[in-house]
Amino acid sequence: MKAIPVPAIAGAYLFEPTPHTDERGFFCRTFDAEVVRSAGIDPHGFVQDSVSRSRKGAVRGLHLRAGRGEAKLVRCSSGAVFDVVIDLRPDSPTHLGKETFELSGETQVSLYIPAGCAHGLQALTDIADVSYRIDREHDPAEDVTIAHDDPELAIPWPLPVSLLSERDRRAPPLAEVVKR
Description:
Elements: E1 2-5, E2 13-16, E3 20-22, E4 25-27, H1 33-38, E5 48-55, E6 59-65, E7 72-78, E8 80-87, E9 98-104, E10 110-113, E11 117-123, E12 127-134, E13 143-145, H2 166-169, H3 174-179
Antiparallel strand pairs: 1-2, 2-10, 3-4, 5-12, 6-11, 6-13, 7-10, 7-12, 8-9, 8-11
């Protein structure tokens, strides 16, 4: 497994596993504390694991946490997703930097998203399961949502957006969120 820095988002990393394949399929390590530590991330800092299952075309996000924020390690364990990260940390050298990725069950690549970055995804397959490793317990009072279709962000969702939660449907644009 190797850690690959994401240039557009300071402190973000892709963790690329080394699969062992044979006629049965593959086996790979999806988390390695030493590799995570070598990237400057505390591997013991994660306190919650979660999973989402989405249908093709569904968008989740753009989400982040207020206050201290929340760092996440995300991986598509089955299917495929188009993943988006936007750096909203005012003091970051990559402030307002945006990067997109395709994460899939085929590659099992994990993406580390630093606290203070917005995150969203769109399911590209009929079913897409995404695993999250999060460094703080969830507090709904700190949830922040930004409109997935904000023209200022111009996210190139690859499929028509077919499903949104009510919260995501009502989300304000980034400019309104920043004013709060």
